[in-house]
Amino acid sequence: MKKILFILIPAFLLLMAGCKSSPDKKSDNGENKMISEDYQSQLLIELPDEYNTPDGLSLAPNGDLILSVPNFNNQHLLERGMIEEAVPPFMASIDPDNNIEHWYDFKEEDLHPETGTMGPMGSAFGPDGNLYVADMHVFFSDEHKSRLIRINVENGKAVDMDVVATGFIASNGVTWRDNTLFVTESVLGEHEDSLVSGVYAFSLEELSDGKPIELVPFENGRFDDHLVVSFSSGNHMGFGADGITFDDDGVMYTTVIEKGEIYKSVVDDNNNAVTKDLFAKDENMKGPDGLIYDSEREHLYVADFLNNAVHAIDMEGNVTTLHKNGDVTGANGGLDQPAVVTLRGNELIVVNMDMAWAAPDFSVNKEVDGEYNLAVIRLDE
With 60 as the cut, is the pLDDT of residue 23 above it? Predict the structure, then answer.
């Protein structure tokens, strides 16, 4: 994603001790559960033009998928003459038959008072039945304008929105573990030539007290108490921590997109990472973005934003590429800058973000082509 300049900060990093990777889990009959390379990406849904930048995708309690549509491509498409006016961001729903419609249209009072817009990204339904969404504003301002929002749901319908945390630079990935919400911050700040990013944690109780949490900026030797772990990376893209998930043992996995790496962290009861280890790195995995854990097959799946690929990773950190292609539009089921993966039964659904202008020097994808779609890799075939 787009390189951004930040104020220099002191050399405070969270340094975590190493630990050994956990052994590969076995199925009930004692055999390793294997993932092969015999999978193909197929077209799931052709999106209307108003879905010019899809991103977050979460499974609702009723089985529908909820898609975040930040439409970050607006300015790029306007400048190229591909659209005549910007399309507002919104949230969409996809039913089990893949019918898609608007689920929540942001109201005037929802918009950020300074940027005048929304940037819905990663999302996850909480134990309270409401949808929590990272509201990223870094493409409009790098001055800590990004937020965490809650879309309140009544009888399965989205009714209104609250801001529950402020002070992010680039809030991004979102996942729940029990009653705690974990959010990746892709940009905490800079130190020398390194980008610092990390993960925050918030309890459901504090998110529900009616007053937004105000994060302390990571600068001048200070960091907010909600920070779980931090990462340092080269800053050639300007985006670090991105996707996040937990396995069945409560171990946290975080992608650091510009490093092409996935880290595993053991998190204690106080939401501090007591260990931080490199878990997966592979020459075929260039830009790991969104990821999810598959309890049935005991694997992680990750969208490779820079390499037009989706990979499966076993619990020893071995990477298997399920599908990879060159620079395509995604119209025939190809991967077109995939950013998010979500499981719906045996379907691994992939969101093609198609935002080439954000990483032109690093991505296989070279231009926004005007065709927007979701892909699927069927794991039972």
Answer: no
